[in-house]
Amino acid sequence: MDLTVVVTFFPLPQDRGDPIRVLMMLRALARVRPYTLLVVRRSETTDAQVAELRALLPGVTVRDFAATPYRLNRLGPLGRYQESLLDGMPPWVRTRYSQELHDALRARTGAGLAIGEAAGAYIRDVPLRWHWDKANVLVASSRQDVDEAHGVAHRLRAQYLARISARFEERALANCATVSVTSAEEATRLARAYGRTADFTLPSCVPLPEGHTPRPLARRLIWLGSFSYRSNLLGLHRFLAEAWPKLHRAGYVLELVGSGLTVPIRNGLAGYDGLAVTGWAPDLRPVLARARAAVVPLWSGAGVKLKTMTLLAHSVPVFSTPVGLEGVPPTEGACSADTPAGLAAAILAATPDQLDRMATEALRLVRERFSETHFADRLVGSLGRHALLGEAAPREEP
Q1: Residue range of the domain that includes 358
Q2: Are residues 238 and 101 in the same domain?
Q3: Which of 98, 132, 366, 395 is the most exposed place for a label (fewest CB within 10 A)?
Q4: Which residues lie closer than 8 Å to 156 by C-beta, 6 or more apart?
């Protein structure tokens, strides 16, 4: 059976959680059988990055497409919202949509693997046998956005997005043969919202860093995440307002690392002392090597968090809210607290010996449960059981 894989956000560079998961899936499948990859370029994607992706996926036919511009873009946000409504997509999905890719899909036969929420746009009317790998259940995450909205305009926008996201998701689910989610909690959300049972759970995993040697500084904390993701930024500001003064007085420094750091966001952090605002780091190893521990202050969001997995894989003890540890089994490598004050208290109470033990257990957990090898075995086995991979024999990498 022919296999077509659709990705709506180019997986290079590896600058946030979604591209990490996507590239891991693509590489795992390439080790098992050939397939055709249809991928939407980001606005900044270069030909060199397309060539790099092809080199990473030997035997895979890679076809790249530009996103289709909005027809009503001249009208600004009002035009984009009207157009996305007419097309039956949330605006952020429409931004990643390629009509050319959609047309190319109509000539394909066999099975289809749609990776990520926005790929649901192609499931609706392309008659492949689709599997949808979902990073989160949109109806649940969009309701969280409504709860977090401030002001009438923001709330109305969030309510609109929640309604169109639910309709979009319901229609795509009705047309896919099988679906996977990232955690047991997400499977529960899917069943509660749509009465649909997830066919399997595929937790997000991370590659183990090569050549990484931790050299932690005694009172160096780190925060890792995309600044452009609203839940990340809300959680960070809550932590800074309610927990950071006490930690800063105790001599801690908090380094902030991640993509999407804009001038307004940087300016909004300027009022806090003791921060090292790094932003995007192309190589996380030297940054995480100096971290004694990490904070993951999240009070909304869904699924296994790649930031949490990345920190654990680099032997960094994690102090997180339960949301930040979703899908992570109980481990001595992480400590959970519900409030900013609780996170601060746990960090202040941790002894050097405890932090050393946490670092050891963090790496052990990822090696045993969340490694790239474990992810590949689970992905290929699950898709094989649901007849998405046909009966092609495994092939060795060149």
Answers
A1: 220-369
A2: no
A3: 395
A4: none
